[in-house]
From TrEMBL:
Residues 205-232 form a coiled coil. Keywords: Coiled coil, Repeat. InterPro entries: Spectrin/alpha-actinin, Spectrin_repeat. This is Dystrophin. It comes from Romanomermis culicivorax (Nematode worm). Pfam families: Spectrin (PF00435).
Length: 295
């Protein structure tokens, strides 16, 4: 509006100057006084015009900076809202290693986004310091309150994202350990089962002693692994309990746990029974050998 008035007044000034110059040229009555007034008016107008143009330029630059600041703040607010919604909406896919890996990659992507946006946050904070000297007290308060709110939300989303990432990493590590332990245990139990089911025909007492020794070692190994088995199964069942949102996945994991536990129980019993059978057989063999020696 001030700029429009300046243009209107310039047209008026041009008209006055043109008319005055004609009067001076004609040397009409009072032309000398008019000439002096005209000489004084033009520099004053130039000074006012220069000051007003400078003020307008400063205001336009300030408005452009403020508008740019508001856009950056709006972008950051939008990103924070999206991340907050995402973090709260998606739960860790406990027990599903493939999905957990994908979730971890997404979480790492969010961490990378935060690092990328840090310079933008710094620019926004710096811009407040640049804008404040040009602002009214009310606008200064607005900028300060807006920046304080953004800083708080930024800090909260960083904390939230880190907690989410740490939680996903923990769940993934535990899930991986459970599946690795169960896989290793299943592989070992299968090899033991095959060995136990292989036909054995000891021909001498020494053969029986070797078999007894072997089965005792196997029994000791089973006992030494019992704590590991129980820990893996308990951790697995804990994970099953946390899979309320994925009943199908929970059922699959429970079936695998039950299968491993049953296989473990069967083999332990098998080793116990076979060791007893071998021990009894060896005792019978010794009795038989004693009777044969007496004859």
């Amino acid at each position: 509006e001030l700029q429009n008035q300046l243009l209107v007044q310039r047209d008026t000034l041009n008209f006055i100057c043109s008319t005055a110059e004609e009067i001076v040229a004609e040397k009409a009555i009072g032309f000398e006084a008019l000439s002096v007034q005209l000489v004084n008016l033009t520099p004053r107008w130039s000074d006012i015009e220069r000051v007003l143009n400078s003020q307008l330029t400063r205001l336009e630059n300030g408005y452009a900076k403020l508008n740019e600041w508001n856009l950056k703040v709006a972008d950051l607010d939008k990103w924070i809202d999206q991340v907050t919604d995402f973090v709260h909406a998606e739960q860790p896919a406990v027990g599903n290693l493939e999905t957990l890996k994908a979730q971890l990659e997404q979480s790492q992507g969010l961490s990378a986004d935060i690092e990328t946006l840090k310079p933008k946050m710094q620019q926004v904070e710096s811009a407040v310091g640049d804008l404040a000297p040009q602002c009214t007290p009310e606008m200064k308060d607005y900028l300060k309150n807006r920046m304080d709110d953004l800083d708080k939300r930024w800090t909260d989303v960083i904390r939230l994202t880190k907690a989410k990432h740490d939680g996903l990493h923990d769940v993934h590590t535990r899930s991986q350990k459970i599946f690795d332990d169960i896989q290793q245990l299943t592989t070992w139990l299968t090899s033991v089962e095959e060995e136990l089911n292989s036909p054995v025909a000891p021909a001498t007492g020494k053969d029986l002693q070797l078999l007894i020794k072997k089965h005792k070692q196997l029994k000791d190994e089973l006992e030494s692994r019992s704590n590991t088995v129980e820990a893996a199964v308990c951790l697995g069942e804990e994970m099953v309990g946390s899979l309320e949102s994925s009943p199908e996945m929970a059922q699959q994991l429970q079936v695998q746990l039950n299968s491993t536990r049953n296989q473990w129980s069967v083999i332990c019993q098998h080793v116990h029974d076979k060791l007893k059978h071998l021990t009894d057989s060896f005792e019978h063999w010794r009795e038989l050998q004693g009777k044969l020696l007496k004859k």
